[in-house]
Amino acid sequence: MTTTKKLTRSENNRVIGGVCGGIAERYNWEPRKVRLAFLLSCLLPGPQFIAYLVLWFAIPSRRTVNV
């Protein structure tokens, strides 16, 4: 039986809100690459900044979740 990691905001790889670091930890990606992908996506039209803010509030902090 495999266990999956829950998506939580990162405590170790936190730059602003820990959203990109948490996504990187969840999928075993490098945090710098996730941040770079997010920054590059901001060059395209769309609500990337608003999506980041929504994820910041929607993804629980690791402190509030028993991992």
TrEMBL record:
Topology of the protein relative to the lipid bilayer: Single-pass membrane protein
Gene Ontology annotations for the cellular component aspect, listed alphabetically: plasma membrane
Keywords from the named record: Cell membrane, Membrane, Transmembrane, Transmembrane helix
Localization: Cell membrane
Coiled coil: none
Segments passing through the bilayer: 36-59
InterPro entries tied to this protein: Phageshock_PspC_N, PspC
One Pfam family from the record: PspC
The keyword Disulfide bond belongs to this UniProt entry's keyword annotation: no
Superkingdom, natural source: Bacteria
Residue ranges annotated for the Phage shock protein PspC N-terminal domain, each copy included: 5-61
Protein name: Phage shock protein C (PspC) family protein
